[in-house]
Amino acid sequence: KWFKLLSRLFDHRSKIQLCGKVLFDQVTWAPVVQSIFFFYCGFSEVGENRVENGRVKVKERFFPTIKKGWCYWPIVQLINFNFTPLHFQVIFTSVFSLLWSMYTSFVGNKRTKITRNMELL
User: Fold this and answer.
1) Mean pLDDT score of the chain
2) Average pLDDT for 95-104
3) Which residues cross the membrane (predicted)?
């Protein structure tokens, strides 16, 4: 549904519209998904301060990861939106999402400062 919405909002034949589509995708979708992912990683850690773990994980990891994502995803989406038919765009993105998920899982599952401090006690 996301790709259909983007296709309705932006004409892929215009290079300016194509860049706008990628920018809109990265400014609206990416920060929300990344924040939810890191919060969940922290929240799912064992301990008393699960909400605080989630908050700390977002605070520590969001900006470094989103900056790396902004180097990776615009290239992927420019290729996707420019050359891939709409009905294959989800599949195309899923292939690159697998690689990105491996990276974010590695980053997201590092211990937070709170978890490390609790282990010292």
Assistant:
1) 87
2) 94
3) 86-108
Task: Compute the Cα dihedral for 49, 51, 57, 60 and give only its sign.
Answer: negative
N residues, the chain: 121
Given a contact cutoff of 8 angstroms between Cβ atoms, the answer to whether 95 and 80 are in contact is: no
Task: Identify the burial level of 15 via C-beta atoms within 10 angstroms of its C-beta, where 0-12 means exposed, 13-18 middle and 19 or more buried.
Answer: exposed
- Which domain range does residue 90 map to? 2-120
Give how far the C-alpha of residue 84 lies from the chain's centroid of Cα atoms, to the nearest Å: 21
Domain count across the chain: 1
pLDDT digits (tens, 9 = 90+) for 44-85: 887 788 899 899 999 999 999 999 999 999 999 999 989 999
